[in-house]
């Protein structure tokens, strides 16, 4: 995520989990990413390789410390992301993001109809 003076941070997570219609990302609590998304709680995530892109516009719903994370979210994240911040050492925070818009495409012929969610509502 970079802070280039724009009013909206952008986040490209290394790993994430989809839990109860929310995106969960774990980052170091004192990282630039955590600070920026706390200051500007609307973000964009780019997921997948270049030829199989998913773009998610999302809103920060909660930033939850390791001490306060509900066990179901922590276990779900660990299972899907294939690592567990609770045992990684360091100080992490879970960012719980509510998706507002999701777009996906693979090739140019899929650009039409690429919006899968708009205003937090699935359109397909």
List strands and helices in order, with pairings.
Elements: E1 10-11, E2 17-19, E3 22-28, H1 32-39, E4 42-47, E5 53-65, H2 71-81, E6 92-105, E7 115-118, E8 121-122
Parallel strand pairs: 1-4
Antiparallel strand pairs: 2-3, 3-6, 4-5, 5-6, 6-7, 7-8
What share of the residues lie within helices? 10-25%
Rg over CA atoms, rounded to whole Å, is 15 Å
> How many DSSP H or I helices?
2
Distance between the termini: 29 Å
Mean pLDDT: 85
Report the top-level CATH class.
Mainly Beta
Describe this structure in words.
This protein is of the alpha+beta class. It has one domain: Electron Transport, Fmn-binding Protein, Chain A (Pnp Oxidase, Chain A, Roll). Helix content is 15%, strand content 41%. It contains two helices and eight strands. It has helices spanning 32-39, 71-81, and strands spanning 10-11, 17-19, 22-28, 42-47, 53-65, 92-105, 115-118, 121-122. Strands 1, 2, 3, 4, 5, 6, 7 and 8 form an eight-stranded mixed sheet that branches. A hairpin with a 2-residue loop joins strand 7 (115-118) and strand 8 (121-122). Residues 1-5 have low confidence and may be disordered.
